Automatic annotation (TrEMBL):
UniProt protein name: Peptidase
InterPro entries according to UniProt: ClpP/crotonase-like_dom_sf, Tail-specific_protease
Signal peptide range: 1-20
Keywords on record: Signal
SUPFAM superfamilies reported for this sequence: ClpP/crotonase
Pfam families for the chain: Peptidase_S41 (PF03572)
PANTHER family referenced in this protein's UniProt entry, alphabetically: INTERPHOTORECEPTOR RETINOID-BINDING PROTEIN, RETINOL-BINDING PROTEIN 3
Natural source organism: Croceicoccus pelagius
Amino acid sequence: MRITPRVAAPLFAFLLSSCAATPQGSGLSRPWIDAGEVRAIQQPDGTSAPQVRGVWQSRGYGRLLAIDAQGVTQYEIGDTCYLPPSEDAQSEMDSIGYRFFRMMPDGDSAIFQLLRGDTMVLFDRIAELPAQCRDEPDTGPKAVAAALLDAFERHYAFFDRRPPDHDTRAAKLRDAMRPGMDDDALWDALALYMDGLSDSHTKLIGEIDGERRRIQDGQGETLPRERARKGGESAWLVGLIEQATQKLGDTAHHTGRDRIVWGTIDGRVGYLQIFQMGGFTDREDFGSDAWAEAEMAEFDRIMDEAFSAFQDADAVIIDLSNNRGGWDRIAKALPGRVTDRAYTGFTTRARGSGRAPYPHRIEPADGPRFSGPVYVLTSDVTVSGGELATLALRQNPNVIQIGKTTRGAFSTPLAKRLPNGWLLELSNEIFAAPDGTVYEETGLPPQVDIAVYPDEDPVAGHWRAVEAVVAMTAHE
């Protein structure tokens, strides 16, 4: 079916808004091996599973969960313990809590997960909620600054790659603190700590006098440049989609709520561009089983159709040059479309978790697959889940990465509410290639370097890059 080029609001709403001591316990470094099956914390009758009720403290992550029959209450714990203010979510990571668990055999430790198949956080059962957690949190400037410093010192994993170190940054913040300072002055002081931290997964979000504020660095060169042009990022994305669908002609499909474009070029090269690893449905129950099932079903439907069309292709181009990340499960499902064997795509571990790196396996998709030459197009816009997919794809000998180096922000953001309700997100997870190589900050360099979004014409230049890849396939 031919899909008429269009641009709907959901894509741009999504893209434009995107972009310690280890507790004692079982001592298992690979808990996922012995843990039981994944179960939902909430049972069908609305109460929590009896075996998971109690108080649990995480290894790493700075989390404490108090689970009773009614559900889960999450506390932030470090130098202090407090119950964060109950306010509207300020980001997707802030909008969901732990929903699933895998019990360890001894019942004294368990793995908790936000979403099925995602990051596994090991928690240990403790006797009771610490007394300090019951106190009303101090929301004054000094306490807020202390909580931010404590979170970075305990959990941030990349000061070695993004200097200066914590102590240097903390000194700047402390020098800016003054008695009786208002929220404006406090915000400016915290900004001093985060200044130059070129990590798009680390941010501070808050509201002062009704004004929403955000501190976030590490957007690369292309994205800020396009946002500053006339028409901004929206005009750029519209131009890219319209150009791709026009070039693909009668084979063009624009689908997945504007997040996917696919078709064939010259009748012999499959082309698949994915802008986002998720958001393919209009469901609003983010993180639920129903949401996950619907998202995967829609992604699989689209991939089945596309890869059925690619069966006789000479090669396939997977264009992730404008991929802004998303759900890790989608990022791992995509490489499964171009492999006939299972393999480890990458590993993860969290600072302070005491856990061995967890191997993320890429399984061949059940639906149509392509086993010929694959070219992955990337740029400095490619980030997060887009980088995970690229990293996993690169472990496949049939895949070549072409374009520009990716952004270098892999870690799933750790969302932590500060005592006054401001939201801090930081990078605490270390993603690595199977051989242990870490590409945080440096990004994944292409095996063949070509311009993707040249300054003089980023829309036409993008398709010239695609055509350059097509020309390479003629020599296969």
